[in-house]
Write a structure and sequence with these properties.
- The complex is a heterodimer of chains A (about 260) and B (about 300).
- Chain A is about 70% helix and about 0% strand.
- Chain A is an all-alpha fold and about 260 residues long.
- Chain A has two domains: about 55 residues; about 150 residues, no CATH class.
- By secondary structure, chain B is α+β, with helices and mostly antiparallel strands.
- Chain B folds into two domains: about 130 residues, no CATH class; about 170 residues, no CATH class.
- Chain B is built from eleven helices and 14 strands.
- Chain B is elongated and about 80 Å long.
- The N terminus of chain B is likely disordered.
- The chains are: A mainly alpha (about 260), B alpha+beta (about 300).
- Chains A and B meet through helix 1, helix 3, helix 4, helix 6 and helix 8 of A and helix 2, strand 2, strand 3, strand 4 and strand 6 of B.
């Protein structure tokens, strides 16, 4: 299979056009079109609209008419009209009160406190880093996602609170932002100043998180450099430390894990 | 000579290798890395040039322009790609009871190179042809064979749904009793009137349905997506392009996958002008999440387009 090199280009427009063309090519491909039409015809002729046939037709159409995301960030998919519903304020008001957030963690009742203890590390780690970001106006909000990464990492051994944290990751800065934030925190600790962290924050604002020189730092150094928020993580207990450690150390050993996952 | 496709050395059979900061310092000047290159960042360590690692791996360099090996030529190609990245793809995955994973994949000159740096030096893979990378990504993020109609969510919808359908122990359930529902709203400080308004809205959007005795259940479609999110296993591809000077595109694009291996669904976060276009005006929230499921062929095409390396 041949492929087209990306090429060094001063502008992303040609690529966007190329992707647009590709999407249209896929959408218009006769095989996928025919598959979709054929499956639909079968279902129609049978006049039963058999569930399986209908599903096959939808699937075949999805191969042709779905996607895609351009390298420039445009969603080129032909979504059906009204894919996104109009929303009232009621849902948004409630949404602001639920999920993992410091207010719930701090003010929760007995049952919730129990939940937090069970969910534990996730919530504490999240709260700690969010507190840190809340108190440092010069830091990009993506650092909040460092908390989410800690939380999700922690969930690998607590196994609770999963969906709530996952939603925060999906709708926020994502996994990568969080993990890179942690690496930057460690860098800041290693260097003893905030240059690495500030540099990461600057690049993260533009979507490029750059190449950070990663190194694990001891907890005391982390606490000295990043202050109160990290101290809270460190003091949260052995599991929280393990969560932070896991996230950072796995970033540094990423290539072996990545190679194994893709080609191993 | 390009030997990426050599029958004597298959790059996919070569393990990633590590070069010391000194080895990188020894070869970087001739590769002229730009500012998006990990070699440039490593140069910040100001290590004394030391070509020992290069010689061991059979990588030719200005100090030893002959005597390279076939493997060394492949690793040299990897270094050339790393010096002038055309795009950087980050693959990350968390949850599912496995250690978090994050790896950078640098694209350029029709090759993909996995790379990582730390204070001990540069780790890099042999160069992987784009089609092999796409095949591997589509295999790794294979979607579920089950099917559900595409669905777009606002974050508020997802937050409320996961809050009220998550048990105290955190597991996601697809149906909640009236008592449990009342308790969950109360814990979050949501008054009865607000709760009803939210439930009505979710019902209107066909995300939940009322059951007997004041219970509510996720609709079949909502449950399809939410149960995958409930696994907490999230895979992510983040893509940034660079020009010849190493300047990066102003924002990254992201593709996410939720669910266990071979049972994942694809989730795309839409922002900015694209979201405005889809909504037909100012969106109520800054991001929307479009969920869909694709077979492997469709997913391969999707990833190709995402990376801008679509087949001719």
């Amino acid at each position: 299979m041949s492929s087209t090199p990306i090429g060094n280009r001063p502008s992303i427009l040609p690529t966007k056009q190329q992707i647009t063309n590709t999407v249209e090519h896929i959408a218009n491909h006769t095989v996928t079109q025919a598959l979709g039409d054929h499956a639909t015809t079968v279902a129609d002729l049978a006049d039963k609209f058999d569930t399986a046939a209908a599903a096959a037709a939808r699937l075949a159409r999805s191969k042709a008419a779905r996607p895609l995301v351009s390298a420039g960030g445009a969603l080129l998919e032909k979504l059906r009209p009204g894919s996104f519903e109009q929303m009232g304020n009621g849902l948004r008001n409630v949404a602001s009160k639920v999920g993992i957030n410091p207010n719930i963690i701090k003010t929760g009742g007995t049952a919730l406190e129990k939940t937090v203890k069970m969910a534990g590390v996730a919530a504490i780690g999240y709260d700690a880093i969010r507190s840190f970001t809340d108190t440092k106006a010069d830091l990009d909000s993506k650092l909040v996602q460092a908390g989410a990464a800690v939380a999700v990492g922690a969930l690998t051994f607590t196994g609770v609170g999963t969906a709530i944290v996952a939603v925060d990751v999906i709708t926020g800065g994502g996994v990568t932002g969080g993990a890179k934030g942690l690496a930057a925190l460690a860098d800041a600790a290693l260097t003893g100043d905030r240059d690495a962290l500030n540099s990461w924050v600057e690049s993260a604002k533009s979507g490029d998180q750059g190449w950070a020189l990663k190194a694990l730092a001891n907890n005391q150094t982390v606490a000295r450099v990043v202050g109160k928020g990290a101290e809270a993580v460190i003091n949260a207990g052995a599991k929280a430390r393990e969560a932070v450690g896991n996230a950072v150390s796995n970033v540094s050993s990423a290539i072996s894990g990545g190679w194994k996952a893709l080609f191993g | 000579m390009d030997i990426t496709g050599s029958r004597f050395v298959d790059p996919l059979t070569l393990n990633p290798v590590r070069l010391s900061p000194g080895a990188v310092a020894a070869i970087a000047p001739e590769l002229k890395p730009n500012k998006a290159s990990p070699l440039t960042t490593l140069a910040g360590l100001k290590a004394a040039p030391n070509a020992a690692d290069l010689d061991t791996l059979g990588i030719v360099h200005a100090g030893k322009p002959s005597g390279g090996t076939a493997k060394g030529k492949l690793y040299r190609q990897s270094l050339e790609t790393l010096a002038s990245p055309e795009a950087t793809l980050t693959m990350a995955e968390v949850g599912g009871g496995v250690p978090p994973l994050m790896v950078r994949i640098v694209l350029g000159s029709d090759r993909a190179v996995l790379a990582d740096i730390d204070t001990e030096g540069l780790s890099l893979s042999a160069p992987v042809p784009y089609p092999e990378l796409i095949k591997a990504l589509a295999r790794h993020f294979e979607n579920t064979p089950a099917f559900a109609e595409q669905r777009a969510f606002w974050p508020s919808q997802l937050k409320v749904l996961t809050a009220i359908f998550s048990t105290d122990a955190g597991a996601l359930e697809t149906e909640v009793t009236a008592d449990a529902l009342k308790g969950r709203f109360e814990k979050a400080g949501v008054e009865a009137g607000e709760a009803k308004e939210a439930l009505d809205e979710l019902q209107k959007h066909q995300l939940i349905e009322a059951k007997a005795g004041g219970a509510y259940a996720l609709t079949e479609n909502a449950a399809f997506w939410l149960t995958r999110l409930g696994t907490g296993q999230i895979g992510e591809l983040t893509y940034v392009m660079h020009d010849e000077h190493g300047n990066s595109t102003p924002s990254s694009t992201e593709l996410r996958f939720a669910g266990a291996p071979k049972d994942r669904v694809t989730m795309v976060a839409v922002r900015g002008e694209e979201l405005k276009g889809l909504v037909g005006g100012e969106p109520p929230e800054p991001v929307g999440v479009v969920c869909q499921v694709m077979d492997r062929g469709a997913l391969s095409g999707f990833i190709e387009a995402f990376l801008g390396v679509a087949q001719e």
